[in-house]
Every structure is written in structure tokens, then in C-alpha cells.
């Protein structure tokens, strides 16, 4: 029962943090920081698919060193791609899993396990939320479900923020067109 209460509290803290923003970049930052802090893990990162290149790009991370974050280009067909195609992906030992692209760098960073879940909006995968632990983590179905719920909420918040920015930009364009039209009259 205590673990369920912790999951609910975590979900509430993360949801509260990301619901306060109207900026997609801020939602991403708040998500990784909130997840890392609430779950008390080594780190958290959020990758989004670049709409033009269709490649995964790091949008934000928290708790990871710059050396690790900048370790090299992420191959689209690696473990993150697997998260996109098949759903959640749990890696118990980063040093002994062929899906890890940079096992030595992960070991040097002090990462033991990784849990990745896709972020979806309207049935379209837009990215991956990833949690890193310093101790081997045999994640439970409850852990996976919690991270999936957070990923879904983050995805909805990112989508709403993007829409808000688009509407705001459209309104500004219409206002400037109206002002320009009045100036000619």
C-alpha cells in the first residue's frame, strides 16, 4: 500500500509541476527534473522526434553529466527506437545488454539500469522518457505504469503548449495585418 501512495504522490507532484507552464521547453525541463526528484533516481532524460529529420533528439536531461549527455550521436535504431516501436523497455544491466549503444559511458556515469517509455500524442509517438538508476533496478509493472502515465501527461502538456504557442502566433499575425490594413485606409 505504501508504494501505491508513493506512486500517487509522484504522479501528483509531476502533474502539478508541468501543468503550470504554457511553454513546451519548460514542460520538458520540469518533467525530467520532477521525475528524477520524485522517483529519487540517478537521472531522467526526455527525447523528442525532430519533425523534419524524424530523428530522436535530446530535449532535456536532469541528473546526468554533460560528458554523458554529449557522449555521441544517438542511433535512431538503438534501444530508444525499440521503445518507440514496442512500448516500454527495461534494461536491468547496462554493461551486459546489446541494446545499449554506449555501455562503457553508461558505466562510467554510474548508471546501472534504464527504463524507457514512449511519449504519445493522439496515437503518434513523439518521443521517449527515460529513467536512469545507479543501482540495478528490477522495475515492477507499477513502476512502468507510473512512468507511462507521466509520459502521457507530459505528451499532452507538450501538445497543448505547442497549440497555445501556435494560436498566440496566429493572433499576433492577425493583429499586425489588421493594424497594417488600418494604416493604409
- What's the CATH class, please? Alpha Beta
Q: Order of SSEs, N→C? A: HHEEHHEHEEH
Overall geometry comes to elongated
Q: How big is the Rg? A: 19 Å
What spatial order of strands do you see in the largest sheet?
2-1-5-4-3
Portion in beta strands: 15-25%
Sheet/helix structural class: alpha+beta
Low-confidence stretches: none
Between the first and last Cα atoms, what is the distance in angstroms?
70 Å
- Number of separate helices: 6
Question: Which topology does CATH recognise?
Answer: Beta-Lactamase
The tally of strands reads: 5
Q: What is the mean pLDDT?
A: 82
Number of domains: 1
Q: What's the architecture in CATH terms? A: 2-Layer Sandwich
**Main beta-sheet annotation:** 5 strands, antiparallel
Helix content estimate: 40-55%
CATH homologous superfamily identity: GAF domain
Structure summarized in a few sentences:
The chain has 185 residues and is an alpha+beta fold.
Amino acid at each position: 500500500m505504501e508504494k501505491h501512495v508513493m506512486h500517487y504522490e509522484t504522479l501528483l507532484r509531476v502533474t502539478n509541476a508541468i501543468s503550470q507552464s504554457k511553454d513546451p521547453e519548460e514542460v520538458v525541463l520540469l518533467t525530467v527534473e520532477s521525475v528524477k526528484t520524485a522517483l529519487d533516481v540517478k537521472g531522467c532524460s526526455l527525447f523528442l522526434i525532430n519533425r523534419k529529420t524524424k530523428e530522436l533528439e535530446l530535449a532535456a536531461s536532469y541528473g546526468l553529466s554533460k560528458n554523458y549527455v554529449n557522449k555521441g550521436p544517438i542511433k535512431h535504431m538503438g534501444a530508444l527506437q525499440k521503445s518507440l516501436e514496442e512500448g516500454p523497455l527495461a534494461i536491468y544491466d547496462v554493461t551486459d545488454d546489446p541494446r545499449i549503444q554506449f555501455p562503457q559511458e553508461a558505466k562510467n556515469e554510474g548508471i546501472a539500469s534504464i527504463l524507457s517509455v514512449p511519449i504519445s500524442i493522439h496515437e503518434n509517438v513523439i518521443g521517449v522518457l527515460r529513467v536512469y538508476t545507479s543501482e540495478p533496478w528490477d522495475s515492477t509493472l507499477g513502476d512502468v505504469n507510473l512512468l507511462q502515465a507521466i509520459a502521457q501527461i507530459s505528451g499532452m502538456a507538450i501538445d497543448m503548449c505547442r497549440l497555445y504557442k501556435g494560436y498566440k502566433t496566429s493572433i499576433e499575425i492577425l493583429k499586425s495585418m489588421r493594424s497594417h490594413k488600418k494604416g493604409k485606409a
